[in-house]
Write a structure and sequence with these properties.
The structure is a single chain. The chain is of the alpha+beta class and about 625 residues long. Helix content is about 40%, strand content about 15%. The protein contains 24 helices and 17 strands. The strands form three sheets. A six-stranded antiparallel β-sheet has the order 2-3-1-9-8-10. A hairpin with a 2-residue loop joins strand 8 (about 160-165) and strand 9 (about 170). Helix 6 runs antiparallel to helix 18 and helix 6 packs across helix 20. The protein is globular and about 70 Å long.
């Protein structure tokens, strides 16, 4: 994929700040381990680090730029365009004679997608961005209009952060690129503490740092001397669904197969996550099928990977969201698909050892062992491939979580998955709580998302409610999941692709009535669409979320760190909490006081001590990054 940084300033001469631009660019080395470079003019500077994965569209090591009308256009991009051939055909000849090759497809030796973006922009201006399919983030400087455009794909698969100030803007694929510029000071926004302590509530574009924002999905953020603006270039559209059940099932299969084929180029070395569940096995099965077709039935087997924990046989306890262990199901699915399969077994010590690295990969508060296990898995996958596939987002699109099937949760106010128990934010110091009003914020965030739901006039109330609940998941928690996978994979230079977020597939499934989606149980529509390719045990397996470590040593470490914060007050974030009450919470968790903590929102159905992960990681982040609190 790669990583980029940039700096636009309408007052400073950036040619005198080349060392700063180079320092910003160097922070992207893990995202782009194969090389890079910078492009610097008085008003705009771009830096790029490139990952070469062997597939189409990767491009060169320098930002793409060309002279137009006595000025310059320049762009950097991460991710990939899924419709590069159509774009090349549409914009033949655009830019010829201005430094751009005659066709987008020939714009660089390996078919640079960034050159295609420039060609489309020359033809259509900012309307070009709505013509792009795929997962991408783009920064484009138009010297003619003295305008910067920051663009993000429709679901925010690829990251893009920015910090605007009086005369300009800093931007980067990860916060560390912005933090490397002395113009940015990392200060906590106290009003954002609720999303620090419960990241699944974060709205699109929010971060906990003052004046650090992420470009929202499906949006363009533009900067010119007159100021900063933002526009949305795409959104889901609600419309009556007229296909019968058989046609719907076949269309879902065709759209998903096309998405996998586009994102799994046969010429690239590829690895796929394989848990043995419906989502990852569907993606792996379609990748195997596509490669067999492309290679005439031959070629190397797909490399698949599963995660297990050393203590599973002794400590695993089934829960509603994790009813069983992945490894046996993954091995069975791998045999069925004839993949080259590896189970990575991680110990508690393995996870603890990489926690500091996961924090550096995040730049923002991390997720403890949830990040660490994924970090270890992606490090292993990177040994065999530079492109990876994930079955992520199927639950959000097809309705795979338990709350979709619980009328009492669907009827409650607020986020259906949130529960009614305590929150970490309930233990903030009174003055801090008055400032950020955690419970009020949670309700307001939910109402804001509900107000944004694309409605369908005349839809039955039950179907309309399911549309709301699906939208809440797609517009909220999904971004947190995608951020985690991007940071942990790109820390190793592994580009992870998510075929379920092909927007043609998502748009189609969005309008399929819930009764048809759920016919046959959880994700019944997807099961019917994939039935002929998957083993029976995969089709009948209950939903099981991404695994987490269940080990008393890890839980004990969390409790020690939280207890030290609450009792000793030595943590840099201690001043933000009501320490006596927080100490009481830690003791309740330590004693397993499930009755007092019933209904508490836990990360992915984890055990009670895991409620403390965000508290401990928040403290470590503030300490490691020297974040100013007030």
């Amino acid at each position: 994929m790669s990583g980029f940084v940039g700096w636009v300033d309408f007052d400073r001469d950036l040619t005198a700040r080349v060392p700063v631009v180079e320092a910003m660019t160097a922070t992207m080395a893990s995202r782009g381990p194969d090389g890079g470079g910078t492009w610097v003019t008085p008003r705009a500077a771009l830096g790029l680090r490139r990952l070469r994965h062997g597939g189409p569209g990767a491009g060169g090591f320098l930002p793409a730029h060309l002279a137009v009308g006595g000025s310059e256009l320049a762009a950097v991009m991460i991710g990939a365009l899924d419709n590069r051939d159509a774009l090349a055909e549409a914009f033949v000849g655009v830019g010829a004679g201005a430094g751009l090759a005659p066709t987008g497809r020939e714009a660089a030796p390996d078919g640079d997608d960034t050159q295609l973006v420039l060609a489309a922009y020359l033809a259509l201006g900012i309307e070009a961005f709505a013509r792009l399919d795929g997962s991408f983030a783009i920064a484009l400087w138009d010297g003619r209009a003295r305008a910067l455009h920051l663009v993000r794909d429709r679901f925010g698969v690829r990251p893009l952060y920015y910090h605007s100030y009086a005369s300009g803007c800093l931007f980067a694929s990860e916060p560390k690129g912005i933090m490397a510029n002395p113009l940015f000071e990392a200060r906590l926004d106290l009003t954002m503490l609720p999303i620090v302590l419960q990241p699944r509530m974060a709205a699109a574009g929010e971060t906990p740092l003052k004046n650090l924002h992420e470009v929202p999905p499906a949006s363009v953020v533009s900067l010119c001397p007159e100021g900063l603006g933002q526009r949305r270039y795409w959104r889901l559209e609600s419309a009556p669904h007229t296909d019968d059940a058989g046609t719907t099932t076949q269309t879902v299969r065709d759209l998903l197969a096309r998405a996998v084929a586009r994102q799994a180029p046969e010429e690239a070395k590829l690895a796929a996550m394989l848990s043995g569940g419906l989502d990852s096995t569907s993606v792996a099965a379609l990748a195997v099928a596509a490669r067999r077709v492309a290679n005439g039935g031959g070629g190397d087997p797909l490399s698949t990977w599963c995660l297990a924990f050393e203590g599973d046989t002794r400590h695993f306890q089934a829960s509603e969201l994790r009813p069983d262990v992945d490894a046996p199901f993954a091995a069975m699915a791998a045999r069925h698909l004839a993949t080259r399969h590896t189970t990575l077994t991680a110990s508690t010590e393995d996870l603890l050892a990489v926690l500091p690295a996961t924090r550096r990969a995040r730049d923002l508060p991390a997720w403890g062992q949830f990040d660490a296990s994924m970090y270890r898995l992606f490090a292993a996958m990177r040994g065999s491939a530079r492109l990876g596939l994930s079955g992520e987002a199927a639950d959000e699109i097809f309705g795979g979580y338990p709350h979709f099937f619980k009328p009492e949760l669907l009827a409650r106010d607020g986020f259906p998955w949130a529960g009614d128990g305590v929150r970490l934010a309930d233990y903030l110091a009174p003055d801090v709580a008055r400032l950020c009003e955690p419970r009020t914020q949670e309700a307001e965030r939910c109402r804001a998302l509900l107000a944004d739901v694309p409605r369908l006039a005349g839809e039955p109330a039950a179907e309309a409610r399911m549309r709301e609940v699906l939208y809440l998941g797609m517009a909220g928690p999904l971004s947190v999941i995608l951020d985690r996978k991007d940071r942990m994979s790109m820390a190793h230079g592994l580009e992870l692709r998510v075929p379920f977020l092909d927007h043609h597939l998502v748009q189609y499934v969005w309008n399929v009535p819930w009764s048809m989606k759920a016919d046959g149980g959880t994700k019944g529509l997807l099961k019917r669409a994939m039935a002929d390719l998957l083993p029976p045990d995969t089709l009948t397996r209950r939903k099981s979320a991404y695994p987490h470590v269940q080990h008393p040593d890890y839980d004990a470490g969390l409790l020690r760190a939280a207890r030290a914060l609450a009792l000793d007050g030595g943590s840099p974030v201690a001043e933000l909490f009501d320490l006596p009450r927080l100490a009481g919470l830690v003791e309740d968790i330590s004693r397993g006081n499930a009755a007092r903590l019933s209904g508490t929102m836990l990360p992915g159905g984890a055990s009670l001590p895991h409620m403390l992960i965000q508290l401990v990681e928040f403290s470590e982040w503030v300490k490691d990054y020297g974040i100013s609190l007030r």
